[in-house]
Amino acid sequence: KADRNYEKIPPRPSEPIQAPMQYDFKSFAFRTRQVNPVLRPLRVKSEEVSRVYGGYLSAGYGNYASPYVEGFINSRRDKNKLIGAHGLFSGSDKGPVDEQNSGSGLSKVSIYGKTFNEYVSLSGDVGFENRTTHFYGYPDGTSVEAKDIKQAYNQFKMKGEIANAKASSFGYNLAAGFSYLADKFDATESEIDLDFASRYHISDDSGLGLSAGYYLINRKDALFEAAPRSLFFVNPRYEFYPMADLKVSAGMIAAIENDTIDNKNVHAYPDLKVSYPVSPSVELVGAFTGGIEKVSLQTLSNENIWIGANIPIFHTNKAYDLQAALHTRIGNRVSLNGGFSIAGLKNWYFFVNSTADQSRFAPVYETGETVRSNFFASIGFAHEEYVNILVRGDLFSYNTDKIEQAWHRPTYKVMADASFNIARKVLLDLSIISQGGVKAWDPALAQTVELAPAFDLNIRTEYMISKSFSVFAQLNNITSNNYPLYLHYPVRGFQAIGGLTWSF
Hints:
- There is one protein chain.
- By secondary structure, the protein is mostly beta strands.
- The chain has one helix at residues 297-303; strands spanning 55-62, 66-74, 81-92, 104-116, 120-134, 150-164, 170-183, 188-203, 206-220, 229-243, 246-257, 266-279, 282-293, 316-330, 334-353, 361-383, 387-399, 412-422, 426-436, 439-442, 447-450, 454-464, 469-476, 484-486, 489-490, 495-503.
- A hairpin with a 2-residue loop joins strand 10 and strand 11 (246-257).
- It is elongated.
């Protein structure tokens, strides 16, 4: 191994020591202006509360000397109650036959209210209604005065209702009502109605339901006073899912009535309803049921205001009603429905012109059984609040037992309704009604006649001047088709009415 010689690093020369650092402290005063900064924190703009209009008034005038006034007044926002009133006057001093001899009118006024808390909801209404018409179906060339053929129905109604205010396992609704009807020919009718409906939620897949009702009707005519007519029914049912998606409601309907036209006062009917979704957009529904359909002077006059005096009135016994339908949806805007129903009706009524006076009608009853078949189809289209269209067509057939024909019952009916909201400024409503195949018995000719088909096209348009004011125009029977709904009773031709509306 070789030895290496290392040279050592020589020490650095010493540096001179500097004098220590000297510090000099002096006082110093500094003053600034007072600063008051203005802080503006960013805030989210609160939403404006939309204005609620508690009042509405609409008025107009049209041909046939037709004034129109309608108004609503309601309480404003209140989480515990709602109180309001409604009034309507609509009439035509002239009509399709001999001007004033075929005038008509409708007037009504009502007061209603509703209050609710966390548990109970109470509601009620009181109202009065007047309907006027004339028996203008007299033979051509007959000389009569309007006051001698005028008919008027005056009706007072009141109703109260109590129900649970929020969803729970047990839901109920109890309603009670009273009405009194009187016409110009000394006919009066009073009616008491009691209705109850409830449902008990057992689980997500099952529940119990119960409906019941009691109706007591007293009627008196110029020539006789009818015995009180009562009708009671009860409808218990059990709702469940016997298999996935198949919903079944199975029960029965029991009814007790005392109509003299039927020797049997106690009736029982099945009550079966099923629904099954074939897919998210297709559903099958069906039902097999029955029951007693209440018939009164009120229901008959609402259907045919030209009924005569001292007429017989009986309830309709729907022995069975078989229904099946298919509901489909195409996207979120189009719906298609179709189906059929076959019903057996006992003591069903039909309207026939009186032999003594062809301008007045009397109900005739099929004491046997009428089999009524109805095939229907409908299509609907909806796009938010801008477009809503619904078209429905019905085909009817009637197989009567003891009566020759189903008098004044149509064999087909087509209805179409469409509403459009154009730029939130123009509202347009269109409606079409067409029906035909109606047969009637003409006592003057002593033979069956078929009424001309009915076609009615109506258009209503409204222009919004502002959120509070608008103008409207209503055109009825644009084609001016004087078709008859009942034998010897043509409707008015082309009608036009225009007016203003005000929301406040």
